[in-house]
Amino acid sequence: MTDVADDAKDIESLYEFGERLNEAKDKSQNVSDYEGIIEAAKGSIKAKQLAAQLIPRFFKFFPNLSDKAVDTHLDLCEEEELGVRVQAIRGLPLFCKDTPEYVSKIVDILAQLLTAEENVERDAVHKALMSLLRQDVKASLTALFKHMGSGDEPSPDEIVREKVLSFVRDKVFPLKTELLKPQEQMERHITDLIKKSLADVTGAEFTIFMDFIKSLSIFGEKAPQERVKELTEIIEGQADLNAQFDVSDADHIHRLISCLYMAVPFFMRGASNSKFLSYLNKHILPVFDQLPEERKLDLLKNLAESSPYTMPQDSRQILPSIVQLLKKYMPRRKTGEEMNFTYVECLLYTFHHLSHKAPNATNSLCGYKIVTGQPSDRLGEDFSEYYKDFTERLSSVEELARATMKKLTQGLAEHNKAMAAAKSDEAKNNIEYLCPEALFQSIFDLVILSRIICLILLASY
């Protein structure tokens, strides 16, 4: 009974402190009342819950007690009782309502509380953070991103980092139009914060950040070239194009190819692909055979998509490597081995575009004489053997493509005929399944390949 009476007395005292502070014209004179509220935070569960409401409500009037008030409130955020913790978390944004200098500190605390396991507690943290983001988006974002690491900050707690990243991705990014105001200034600010956080991110995290940055208006379709260049430089940094290449480093290979794919849209908008192509030519293409099989085609596809936007000087540098790969994958005569048509299609597409950009480079590589009037045409030299070799390979590929198209078309027709003749589901199930979409795609790819070959052959005459 004594404990119950004491609890009731504590609650009554808290209400009295609150009433006197509410009624006081100059609340700063009621120091003892505010100290009483702080002290009551050490009492019963109900007293703690009430104190969690009153401490932030009158916080601004007692700057000399600010440290003690905040520390006491933070203790309430770590109480064993869930109700106390939730009430204390809900009160955290109130510390900043009239004292905005506390925004960074409170956001930093809330970021650490994102690890809460209880849904109601985590929801309270989310709402408190969103309240502070709406109050001061710049300070709040800066405090949040400190938990995602940068070259200027100590290594963050990994669990907190993961929770902060999830919060930013799920709660902040979708509301960028509402939160990032003034728009250009705040889009610039969050871009700079993200760039500082990219020193140690996974591929998936980098994609999340890049997708968001690309969605910002400052990097939209009408953005000036320097901003398109900035996006490309971010991707180049992630690709680690200054690193010594190790063909056994599967992570770097994956990152490099993924970044090249990500950069292609910016090449289309005028950004230079020179650094990527230089790195590929120097480090990757010479050891193409040693790359993981599952990444070879991705590399060739990305290279092909980049080729129309390559500068003449870069085209001239990389063409010899492309021709060497073509000779490897295009048989000079029919052999019993299967040919990888997709590899050849990508390489021929790349060759076609690079040759168009650097026409005087083809004579010494494959005997294609295209007169530009420059000494590099090398018209006085005889490269007829190169020409004969290359055209024979092209003709061989064209014949194989046509034969394969015929075989695929016949196979599809026979399959359709067999399916039509089958009278029961069991009979249909016994027929080997062929995917019509895949067959049509294969036939379409072969048609494209044949047309590329025709273009190259016509250019040689």
Automatic annotation (TrEMBL):
Record-linked InterPro entries: API5 (IPR008383), ARM-like (IPR011989), ARM-type_fold (IPR016024)
Q: Mind telling me which Gene3D superfamilies this protein's record contains?
A: Leucine-rich Repeat Variant
Keyword Cytoplasm assigned to the entry: answer is: no
A GO-annotated cellular component: nucleus
The Gene Ontology terms for molecular function here are: mRNA binding
The family database entries (Pfam families) matched by this protein are listed as:
API5
Keywords from the UniProt entry:
Apoptosis
Belongs to which family? Belongs to the API5 family.
Query: Could you give a single Gene Ontology term from the biological process aspect?
Result: regulation of programmed cell death
Q: What is this protein called?
A: Apoptosis inhibitor 5
Q: Which species?
A: Liquidambar formosana (Formosan gum)
